[in-house]
Amino acid sequence: MASLICIKSKSLSIVASNIFAIIASTLSLISSVFSLINQHSYTLDYLVGFPFGKLELTIDPLSAFFVFMISLLVIPVSIYSIGYLKSEYLEKNIGLLCTLYHLFILSMLFVVLSGNGFQFLIFWELMTLISFAFVIFDIKSTESKNAGFIYLLMTHIGSAFLLLSFLIFGKYTGSFSFSSFHEASNLMPVSLKTVLFLCVLFGFGTKAGIVPLHIWLPQAHPAAPSHISALMSGVMIKTGIYGILRFVFDFLSPFPSWWGVFVVFIGITTAVLGIIFASSEIDIKRILAYSSIENIGVILLSVGASMIFYSFDQTVLATIALVASLFHSLNHSLFKGLLFTCAGSIVSRTHTRNIEKLGGLIKFMPKTAFLFLIGSLAICAFPLFNGFISEWLTFQTLLTLYELKPGFIKLIAPVVASLLGFTSAICAAVFVKTFSGIFLGIPRTHQVHHVKEVSYSMNLGSGILTLLCFLIGVIPFMLFPLLKNAASFIVGLDSSSNGNLQNLLTVNSRFILLGNNNFASISPLAILIVLIAGFFFIYSFSKIYGSKLPVRKEETWSCGVTPKAEFQHTPTGFSQPLKVIFSELHTPESFYHNYIYLPIVNGLISFSHKIKPLQSGVLQIYLLYIFLALILSLAWIKL
Amino acid sequence: MNYNILKHLTLLLTHTGLLLLFAPFIHSYIKKIKAMMQGRIGPPILQGYYDLIKYFHKETVASNQTSWLFSITPFIVFSTTLAAGLLIPTFTSEEFIVSLGGIILFIYLFGLGRFFMTSSACEPGSSFCSMASSREMMFATLIEPVMLLPLFVFVCMYGTNNICETVNQLASKGVALYTPTYILSIIAIFIASLAEMCRIPFDNQETHYELTMVHEGMLLEYSGKQLGIMFFSGWLKQLIIISLIANLLFPLYTMPGFTFASLCFAVIIYLLKVLIVSTFIVFIETIVAKVRLFRVRDILMTSFIMSIIALVISVYKGKGLGV
Question: Is B74 within 8 Å of A538 when comparing Cβ atoms?
């Protein structure tokens, strides 16, 4: 905790604390890769220094993968935050911010490493509280306060459900250790398991942001500082996915197939609605927050597909589906980290999050524009970038569901897959709107003209993420051993059928093949080569053939008047056609507030009013209550 | 040189060359036939080539608001379209580049080109361009699922994601091919393709009124060579989609052996198929009026529902709905 030591010198503390964060996460990155490759599980017990028993840290391939994901994002984000904190938060309490930053990372790591239910809850709450502190860091603004309140409220309702399910587990096993939870699954009846499943889905789903439990997400993420938003959106909400995977596959298996169908249904609803909400937003960080909701939906789609395969004993296919979901989690953390850091750069220079007030920034911040463009391409899942590979795998796993027997599953598989295509098409529309609103066209306000490019370290941080997005998109083969080990551990695929997995998911240095008789295949390197070849063919052709005059720059044609910034479409205008055609789906936030949350709150209030007469304040009545309670409990014992 | 490599190289070059050379012709052919159907004489059949030559010899003028993105967009749009062209069968359904990708890549490559085209249209700060770009994105959100679902029905039925492989399997079926599922899916693909090609009833390529332009509207600020490349990419995309439909509709061709004669024969058969489909498109364009912008959704939804029906038939065929 270097930041605590050097509170005195602010800029020194920024550099030092972030360098410590980088070193620590590099170490954890290396150790997680080793444990993923070796597929070992270790348990470390620290007897001292932790309240309520020993500190139990377990690293198995599943948690190692999430440690890998967190560390991979923390390194570039820490580099970024050196410059970001210097430019934005120098006059605020830097020491506190840096300490919280470290604690936040540490709590996320401990959440995925906990080997004990009790500890897990403590770290889970710690993670929530620290991120709450970040949300209300800008304490003067009422927006932050509201966001913080809703965040705290929603996550605590989620935690209550988690606590309930942990207590039920604890009752059946007599222990809070995850290893005993694992054995409990055989003892429990199916109905209880279903209740537990719903509790877990609700609890972790609140954190992950599934619709309609998402309402805290678009408020909390924009309120936090940008490097924290990158971590919150990139990895913190993925701890919800971790929880779902851990519980469903580790503690609650075997389970009926409708669980998987249910998760697929939630996934596609979240994905479609999340991105449709994003389409009408004009606050850059809210757009990114909504698109995180969409991506959680995409991840849940393949988790659900994997659950369906698992319940039909198709463990090999279940592994492939999980590879898709883990891969998309990793990719989402990278490109969302990239986009949030770029958004931070833009906000720190222009002091507005409203994209209607921007425009034309590509001339003033060319590097940020390029990085944001790559991030947008990756998040829209276009070929050559990492999002495409994982979304392609998701498509394939959904289509493979057609191989299963039940007609219903056969029917939903292609429909859900085409709806996934629908979400990524809207995603493209949203990011064309965002990118062109911020960077292209004529600047809409005067302050844009004085904007300068951000500092070197900020661009370096985003640049590393950009490079990772591109490299994973072109050579995804490097990551497959890690993904396969983690996924086959979760579904309990033994090494004898590993050869079978090899056959189904063939990955070599050239292409990925899926399926027995060449069901689907893709070659990212060949796509790159073909695109480069096509580009240079037409480029050289246009250089050689035809007119040799240089490009002349003239004013934009606007019916004879001087073009003004007001002539352009605003981002709101850009998404207006989308809003019209999807008006049925396009429910504003007040819908959830008015029709889902408000009835619950009103119901609770009227219920409390109804039971208020019980508390009359008359002593005799209270004595009567005690007497009645005594009689009832005696009767209970007698029975 | 190894015979196999030679063969594949010849096929690849013929395939790419055919697409590139034939794209302007199909564009002019459609224009000509349409004019004839409407009782006009129409432009010469080689007008597309004349236009391209003209554009390439003109000076390029760009808006002073534009940046590097605007000038590289034509090249990117062209290369993504050409790459998509390598994924579909034309005169032969043999694969040229082993496992480049399947249907999903095909759709997403068009998406990548569209992303750059719509972004660049917002660059000059012109109200017409950005409006067209916003409408194009609206179309895209509707077209993509509607195009994907019938293709996915084929993927599920024939167990392959590769379009060439699908066509091979269709070809091996003979007359038994024309099942209700197949016919409904083909109609659905055809409707979505009309929208993807910016044809009536979705978009009118020949309009001269900026407010009704969608695809053309995005090209308003382009000129000279850049405009030429943009037009060419659009025509190439049109030919690629027509070839896809033609090969799904008439998968009845073979290339026995690899001789010069069989190659020529296959190419002629292919051109005939493409001309038949183009004539049919002209027929549709002549008898149908362009619909209002927001009615586009209803037509595309009809197509989507048609492919859902196709899917239901294929799943529950011979089993009854009680399963």
Answer: yes
**Is B90's Cβ below 8 Å from some Cβ in A?**
no
For residue B316, the chain A residue with the least C-alpha distance is A407
CB pairs < 8 Å spanning A and B: 281
Q: Beginning with the edge strand found earlier in the chain, give each strand of the sheet holding A512-514 in spatial order.
A: A505-507, A512-514, A520-522
ipTM summary value:
0.94
Per domain, the residue ranges of chain A are 592-638
Which residue do the tokens 């309702």 mark?
A157
Q: Which helix (H) or strand (E) holds A44?
A: strand A42-46
Cis bond before residue A254 (omega within 30° of 0): yes
pLDDT digits (tens, 9 = 90+) for A557-584: 888 888 888 888 888 888 888 888 888 7
Contact in structure between B132 and B119 (CB atoms under 8 Å): no
Mutate which: A418, A510, A548, A574, vs B, most B CBs within 10 A:
A418
Task: Provide the H-helix boundaries in A39-116.
Answer: 61-88, 94-113
Residues of chain A found within 8 Å of residue B69, distances taken between Cβ atoms: 362, 373, 440
SS3 at position A136: coil
Cα separations in angstroms, A505 against A311, A397, A498, A517, B95: 20, 11, 10, 11, 21
A294-312 pLDDT, tens digit per residue, is 999 999 999 999 999 999 9
| Domain extents in chain B | 3-314
A395 in B contact zone (CB under 8 Å): yes
Q: Do A436 and B98 touch (CB under 8 A)?
A: no
Question: Is there a contact between A436 and B152 if contact means CB atoms under 8 Å apart?
Answer: no
Band of pLDDT at residue B276, cut at 50, 70 and 90: very high
Q: Are strands A552-554 and B61-63 parallel, antiparallel or unpaired?
A: parallel
- Which of B126, B225, B311 shows the shortest C-beta gap to A546? B225
CA distance A80 to A82: 5
For B159, the closest chain A residue by CA position comes to A519
Report the interhelical angle of B103-121 vs A407-439 (nearest 10°): 20
End-to-end CA distance of chain A: 59
